[in-house]
Design goal:
It contains three helices and nine strands; from the N terminus they run αββαβαββββββ. With about 130 residues, it is mainly β. The chain has a single domain, classed as OB fold (Dihydrolipoamide Acetyltransferase, E2P). A five-stranded antiparallel β-sheet has the order 3-2-1-4-7. It is globular and about 40 Å long.
């Protein structure tokens, strides 16, 4: 399954509809660089086909600020600013409409219809901390 789609009629992400994925090696998992960060900026992204935001996240002094686009408009901009999030930061960059460069993937759990529930972190997590 690639990029998710929001579908409020067919509920494609209902847990009963999702097969278990094939096994991967532990090395595959540990190849991912998953870090804690804090959202510092959120802008509407009208160039996208589906409602989306451009999001900037601070991953601490070692990594710095990275940008991504996400279909998380079920959250208001004010709910997102200063929120701690989890991001996979070593998946490569992708150029999106309007020349915007997405540098990481923000992580969340999908509702049955595909709406994203961002993963939550305790308030005392240091920016840039590895998520294991």
């Amino acid at each position: 399954m690639g990029q998710h789609e929001i579908d409020t009629e067919n509920f494609p992400y209902h847990p009963e509809k999702l097969p278990k994925k094939d096994y991967v090696s532990v090395n595959d998992y540990f190849s991912l660089d998953i870090r804690a960060g804090k959202i510092t900026n959120v802008e509407n992204y009208p160039e996208m086909r589906k409602p989306s935001y451009k999001i900037t996240v601070d991953f601490g002094s070692k990594i710095g600020q990275l940008s991504t686009s996400a279909q998380i408009t079920n959250y208001s901009r004010s709910e997102l600013i200063n929120r701690l999030v989890v991001g996979a930061i070593n998946l490569g960059e992708k150029t999106l409409p309007g020349g915007f460069i997405s540098q990481f993937l923000i992580l969340g759990a999908l509702d049955p219809d595909g709406a994203v529930n961002l993963l939550e972190l305790p308030k005392n997590v240091m920016l840039g901390s590895t998520v294991a």
